[in-house]
């Protein structure tokens, strides 16, 4: 039996990973460590909360005392590190919080895990650390880091710390960098759930700039399967890109959702572009396919259809969050992305 520590397991990708892992590894013990900030929702993992081999611990990854206490009480075999501030717009207005959680928090977790003999550490990162692509080409694991937002810069910093812990201490860190995630349990400020929930209420849907920014969309379940492969078979010290091979412009995504819901395109409202808005991301995930045998299951069409159906049937989950988002951001936003 393996004991797995998942940080940020009440967030979007983290909670999906918790559910994925517990369904496929029912004999493993899983500790979900999450601070429950605005984007953390324990209800996302409610279906496994009753299991005797599941434990939720409220805690901050930057709190070394709490982490030392936890790992002393319950030895951990492996860590999957999702915990991060991930919303680009928030990083522009509140960069300090991103440096604290994403940089200091990652270093604190790495050091604590190293001191307690953790045998496997997967650091989950993002394609945004690579910066912006032109109209052609793909990000590979050898693409230089060139982050353009405080969020991306903080994630790049955490990636470099993870690399340094492998190079300096021989600590068994593996880094994954994913493209934009989408799927169930994503906080309503992100592009796809924002469009779905606003369209369901017949409210206008804001789109940044000309809407032609391109992203590679990855269904969260495919991402979870990739992390499983990396955790079990990945080589320490390596980086693995995870992409869905589903490039779409933002406006294509918005129009597809409106069509799926039978809503008019007249709901679309173009708004001033985000500061430092990267034009295109696209991932080369051939290393992950070639070396670990991973393949995404979901096409953009099928994945988006399933996601729209999930949100349409789960207002009980997103309704209260949408009210909170509305209070925090009374003016319509045009976010994108699928951060951790």
Short description:
The protein is an alpha/beta fold and 340 residues long. It has helices at residues 12-24, 64-73, 88-93, 95-115, 150-169, 191-200, 220-233, 250-261, 286-292, 300-313, 315-328, and strands spanning 3-7, 29-34, 54-58, 78-81, 120-126, 173-178, 180-182, 205-208, 214-219, 239-242, 247-249, 268-271. The protein has a domain at 3-181 and 218-242: NAD(P)-binding Rossmann-like Domain (Rossmann fold).
Question: Could you explain the architecture of this structure?
Answer:
It holds the Pfam family GDP_Man_Dehyd. It is an enzyme of class 4 (lyase). This is dTDP-glucose 4,6-dehydratase. The chain has a domain at 3-181 and 218-242: Rossmann fold. It is 41% helix and 17% strand. The chain has helices at residues 12-24, 64-73, 88-93, 95-115, 150-169, 191-200, 220-233, 250-261, 286-292, 300-313, 315-328, and strands at 3-7, 29-34, 54-58, 78-81, 120-126, 173-178, 180-182, 205-208, 214-219, 239-242, 247-249, 268-271. The strands form 3 sheets. Strands 3-2-1-4-5-6-10 form a 7-stranded parallel β-sheet, sandwiched between helices. The longest helix has 21 residues, at 95-115. Residues 327-339 have low confidence and may be disordered.
Percent of residues in beta strands? 15-25%
Q: N-to-C SSE series?
A: EHEEHEHHEHEEHEEHEEHEHHH
- What would you call the shape? globular
Which structural class should the secondary elements be placed in? alpha/beta
Number of strands: 12
Largest sheet: 7 strands, parallel
CATH C-level class of the domain at 3-181 and 218-242 is Alpha Beta
- Runs with pLDDT <50, length 5+? 327-339
CATH superfamily of the domain at 3-181 and 218-242: NAD(P)-binding Rossmann-like Domain
Quickly count the helices.
Answer: 11
Provide the helix percentage: 40-55%
The name CATH uses for the topology of the domain at 3-181 and 218-242 is: Rossmann fold
Shape-level CATH architecture of the domain at 3-181 and 218-242: 3-Layer(aba) Sandwich
